[in-house]
Design a protein that fits this description.
28% of the residues lie in helices and 19% in strands. It is α/β, with parallel strands linked by helices.
């Protein structure tokens, strides 16, 4: 694993200024993007990212973000149909995609009978649409991640095989603790991103946030808390937190 880049923490009094600041930063990044390809974002699932997405389609961001210059991907997906209530795609579609050209949304087809083949197909799609770094890994302009109370991110859960994947960018990961299987991006592609934003809010996240951000050996502790395996090789890493989530850091 590559050496850790400096980590930035941005802490806000509550979620309103937090989501506002994130939306302002994303607006600036899209405006400043000069690549021949669209600004690429890998989205996170969950209720907290959903509230951020809803912020993006409120004024003034709805009108000011250049949606035609943004392409949306996913960090992980549950093995359900795209209209299922547990689908990350369904959540993002309801919160955000009604304002985005359909051709610029690349969902994970995790409901497919052969999840391994579907993961390989998503990897091929990324290879086609994204630029790649010196290690030939696809480079997202931005990866948005959440964190579970067990330290998981995307569908990289503690003690699962995907934590050790170094060749594939997308895999089907068995998650015994939830008795399920999910499709997820892996560390090689997460760590090739130009920017990674980790979003956490609420008092229930205070213990895992404190444990992770106080860790002196993130590469070792990633086996216990998978979020710590996210160490961008050359991009920047920002933890976006509200005061409740960060309450044990001070």
């Amino acid at each position: 694993m590559t050496p850790a880049m400096p980590v930035t923490r941005k802490i806000f009094p509550d979620t309103h200024p937090l989501f506002l600041a994130m939306a302002q930063e994303l607006r600036s990044l899209v405006r400043e993007h000069r690549g021949e390809r669209p600004f690429s974002i890998a989205l996170a699932g969950g209720s907290t990212p959903q509230r951020f997405y809803e912020q993006l389609v409120r004024p003034p961001f709805k009108e000011q973000i250049l949606w035609k210059q943004v392409a949306f991907y996913f960090g992980d997906e549950r093995c359900v149909s795209p209209d299922h209530e547990d689908s990350n795609y369904r959540m993002a579609h309801q919160a955000l995609f009604t304002h985005v050209p359909e051709a610029q949304v690349f969902r994970m087809e995790a409901e497919a009978p052969d999840l391994d083949a579907s993961a390989a197909a998503y990897e091929a799609l990324m290879r086609q649409h994204l630029i790649r770094d010196q290690d030939r890994a696809p480079v997202f302009d931005l990866v948005l991640l959440g964190i579970g109370n067990d330290g998981h991110t995307a569908s990289l859960f503690p003690q699962t095989t995907a934590l050790h994947e170094q060749e594939h960018w997308v895999v089907a990961n068995d998650v015994p603790q939830l008795n399920t299987r999910r499709m997820t991006l892996t560390y090689p592609v997460l760590n090739a991103a130009q920017r990674v934003w980790i979003l956490a809010t609420g008092i229930s996240k205070r213990h895992i946030i404190a444990d992770c951000l106080r860790s002196h050996t993130p590469q070792t502790d990633a086996a216990r808390w998978p979020i710590l395996g996210v160490q961008p090789s050359s991009g920047n890493l920002i933890w976006w937190l509200d005061r409740d989530a960060a309450s044990l850091l001070v």
